[in-house]
Amino acid sequence: MSDTSISAPQSELVIAPNDSDVGDYIALMKPRVMSLVIFTALVGLVLAPVPVHPVLAVAALICIACGAGASGALNMWYDADIDANMQRTTSRPIPRGRISPDQALTFGTILAFGSVLVLGLVANWFAAALLALTIGFYIFIYTMLLKRRTPQNIVIGGAAGAFPPMIGWAVATGSVGIESILLFAIIFLWTPPHFWALSLYRMRDYERVGVPMLPVVAGLQETRKQILIYTILLVGFSLAPLFVNIGGIAYALGATLLGLQFFRLAFVLWRQEAEDHKPAKRLFLYSIVYLFALYAILLVEKIVAAPTLLSLNVWGA
């Protein structure tokens, strides 16, 4: 599929007097996205073969969370024009006039540099470099380069959201192992069906602001087909942790059952003929549950296998 460029409309931002509060800055960091980042980074950190002191683990996770928050803030700064014209994003702090674009840029920049610097000091500089790469990839590659130019924006840009478990692993080991690469790949394959499901029932929003999401450029049926293809790849690849000893019997069973439901919902969506948003919404919401559950099983298996994992003695005290 060739790249497509669609220019965005001029924004109509309302910049009100500076009456922002802490809640506005929290919203600027996209806390729902941040929660997924923290959780997947935690799983990567716990699955790593090197024990980490809990104080260091908490400090590292805070740095990773701040890095994710920086990405969210800088994304909202750059996309303030289209956020003001999309129904899904008009309640964000900048379109509402709660925070100015300059404030968002300053806040995001400080968070970005601060999170990378502190992670390097408290953990290691390899993990810090991965965090810097994640922030830079999300802002410069996805937000600035891809999002408004190509329907493959989510496919390529999804790599940014897949880095957290790899960063968590690097915090513990100072390196990247095949296990963390597989954790990365699962999220990478999960991202297209997750966001394309959202874009199916938010297509008019993307049309309005000129963002060439796949359903806008290729149509509904092609998007549904691509969702099904990526779902099949995801479900099959989700079993890969079994072959590198980070997944056990519980994971095998859980990944299979969760994957079959994911496939069922994607198949129902693919077979859909009428323009009904319900199947896409069901798949989008389930995809969030799916990823959390998949990683939760890996986490629980690790803790059960090493019941003293949370002990200060085991974690290097």
Describe this structure in words.
This protein has helices spanning 22-28, 31-47, 54-78, 80-83, 101-122, 125-146, 153-157, 159-162, 164-173, 178-201, 203-209, 214-218, 220-237, 249-271, 278-305. The protein has 15 helices and no strands. It has one domain (23-305): Farnesyl Diphosphate Synthase (Orthogonal Bundle).
Order of helices and strands: HHHHHHHHHHHHHHH
- First-last Cα distance: 54 Å
- Stretches with pLDDT under 50, minimum 5 residues: 1-17, 310-317
Q: Give the percentage of residues in beta strands.
A: under 5%
Shape: flat
Strand segment count: 0
How much helicity do the residues have? 55-70%
Which CATH class is shown? Mainly Alpha
Task: Describe the structure concisely.
The chain has 317 residues and is mainly α.
Provide the descriptors you would attach to this structure in a database record.
mainly alpha; 317 residues; disordered N terminus; flat; disordered C terminus; 70% helix; Farnesyl Diphosphate Synthase; single chain
What's the arrangement of secondary structure elements?
Layout: H1 22-28, H2 31-47, H3 54-78, H4 80-83, H5 101-122, H6 125-146, H7 153-157, H8 159-162, H9 164-173, H10 178-201, H11 203-209, H12 214-218, H13 220-237, H14 249-271, H15 278-305
Helix pairs in contact: 2-3, 2-9, 2-15, 3-5, 3-6, 3-9, 5-6, 6-9, 9-10, 10-13, 10-15, 13-14, 14-15
